[in-house]
Design brief:
The protein has 384 residues and is α/β, with parallel strands linked by helices. It is built from nine helices and 19 strands.
Amino acid sequence: MKQIRLKRSTRTPRVVFGHPWVFSGEIETPPRVPAGEAVELLDARGHSLGSGIWNPASQIVWRKFSSEKRAWGEDFLAEALAKAVAKRAPAPASRRLVWSEADALPGLVVDRFEDALVVQTLTAGADKMLPFIAAWLDENLSPSEIIFRNDAPSRRFEGLELSVSFHENKPHVPRRFDIEGVRYFLDLAGGQKTGFYLDQREQHMNAAKFSRGKSVLDACCNQGGFSFQCARAGAAQTLGIDVSAPAIEACRRNAAENGFRNCAFETANLFDWFGENRERRFDLIVLDPPPFARTKDALAGALRGYKELNLRALKMLNPGGVLATYSCSQRVGTEKFIDVLSSAAHDARRRVTLLEITGQPEDHPALLNFPESRYLKGLILRAD
């Protein structure tokens, strides 16, 4: 196995403390190794830091998968896949089975929707081993179908093309799936990410516990998960807002399919909607916008956006109302998010109590030494 060595530096690289990434500027002369092969990482003194996937086409040239000297091959992959699946058993019908570095499988994502699997390979190493990965999943999990959603834009950073394909060329037919007691009509080959935001399914139910007999605003509702769980919990009325007309149409269809008569949906830009509906009031407001800070340069603007949305939501809450607010922006940490909400509460002149701080579900584990894996955070607040 080829080796790479960290440069001598006055600042100790994060990888020495357990972070799984090494950037191109942190190593000495790179080896002549094809993308997707395993290389051993040495610190500046020559001590081994483990094995990782090499890709000279990416800014992240090395991604750790083992603390030992291991080949990136079928033996390791079979062990890691079995371990990832086993630690999530027994599992609900729809949940994440494999999540990238958190399962020592950099760039591999596997989501299960009842008897269907959706697979993403986001690194050259995972992409190279996709035939074996598919065969292992087929043999050990016996899915009815496997959809390869390799259309994520991040693949371009690894020098990979974008595509959607199917195991054994069996195309996916959109159909209904059960997720936490709600039936959704999903297109797993064309929906966002892997077809559904499974990382929020627990929060759909968590927020719903505040909704019985209440009026609910589900802002940035996407596929309606918060609205539907609130409807199941006995909300008096829910209103979902999203800028995507197809998403709203899907919500309306799924509401009818589930018999939810207390759910309404509107297509609108949320900032505009808040401005046009200042006089409306709700008992529970859910804010679950898409990531605002995709790059470091976008962070300041993202914080302003989060503050403005939450400020408007706090002004729209009835006394004693609850705000369930979330951020999936990796660059916005929990403390920063709390600071934003504190500032919004001050400007709204509301006395706000922090009820809960929420994070990712167990099937989306976050590594302690890998802040990038801790992307999802939420606050449950009560405004007097």
